[in-house]
Design brief:
The chain is an alpha/beta fold. It is built from eight helices and nine strands. It has one domain (7-201): P-loop containing nucleotide triphosphate hydrolases (Rossmann fold, 3-Layer(aba) Sandwich). The strands form two sheets. It has a five-stranded parallel beta sheet with strand order 2-7-1-8-9, with helices on both faces. A four-stranded mixed beta sheet has the order 4-3-6-5. The chain binds adenosine-5'-diphosphate and guanosine-5'-monophosphate (5GP). Adenosine-5'-diphosphate is lined by residues 12, 14-20, 133, 136-137, 168, 170-171, 174.
């Protein structure tokens, strides 16, 4: 039987650089899959259905909730977002790793289910830089941006219970930190038991 893939959960206040970093990891690690969430949020310019999200109607989302199809879901800025249990498990059952870009509410749900996930929190280097990144991205209007900044304070407090914290200051450095975590998690003794035992008994 194939070993199940690892589950990496990445959260951060909006605009910190989650999407940028998660996508970078899938280019570095061919066996790492980005889990595509389901959402009721309208598409932004440049968003592609099936690549960035599965964009669905509130009615279809509700049907998935009622059918227990989400391993976690949350309402964020008036829209719903969820991770499909079947999508996630089918990737992991093939032995491939999954990286989830989800908010703190969703991460908490996974933690409370005792899922063996690796929880990683990204912090911006400063409030000033977070504001700059959010406004540079130009995906939100002024009011939406204010909303995101207000929410960021509470989100950052949640970083206290995550396994790892990365400050996304220089992109190159943050990429290296995230890469190091993924590599190190693969080297944990409990995940190397089979290889270790094979060598030990052969001698
Ligand atoms: P999130 O997914 O957390 O909302 P994004 O990945 O969309 O954030 O990044 C927000 C903006 O900040 C984007 O324009 C992105 O190119 C930029 N960005 C990400 N990381 C860095 C960094 N280390 N330095 C400067 N800009 C960054
Ligand atoms: P955006 O609309 O900017 O793409 O994402 C808004 C927020 O939704 C981000 O914090 C992102 O991490 C979160 N998000 C995206 N997909 C999911 C999901 O499936 N579940 C949860 N809980 N949050 C998600």
């Amino acid at each position: 039987m194939k070993k199940k893939g690892l589950l990496f959960i990445v959260s951060a206040p909006s605009g910190t650089g989650k999407t940028t970093l998660c996508r970078a990891m899938t280019r570095i690690f061919p066996d790492l899959n980005f889990s595509i969430s389901y959402t009721t949020r309208p598409r932004r310019p440049g968003d592609k259905n099936g690549r960035d999200y599965h964009f669905i109607s509130p009615e279809d989302f509700q049907k998935m909730v009622a059918g227990g199809e989400f391993i976690e879901w949350a309402e964020i800025y008036g829209h719903r977002y969820g991770t499909s249990r079947a999508d996630l498990e089918s990737i992991r059952d093939e032995g491939r790793d999954v990286i989830l870009d989800i908010d703190v509410q969703g991460a908490r749900q996974l933690r409370d289910k005792n899922l063996p996930g690796i929880f990683i929190f990204l912090l911006p280097p400063s409030w000033k830089e977070l504001k700059r990144r959010l406004s540079n991205r130009r995906t939100e209007g002024k009011a939406a941006m204010e909303d995101r900044l207000k929410k960021a304070q509470g989100e950052m407090a949640e970083a206290r219970w995550y396994d790892y914290v990365i400050v996304n200051d220089k992109l190159e450095m943050a990429r290296e930190r995230l890469k190091a975590i993924i590599l190190a998690e693969h080297c944990r003794r409990e995940r190397m038991m089979q290889a270790m035992e094979n060598l030990i008994v052969q001698k």
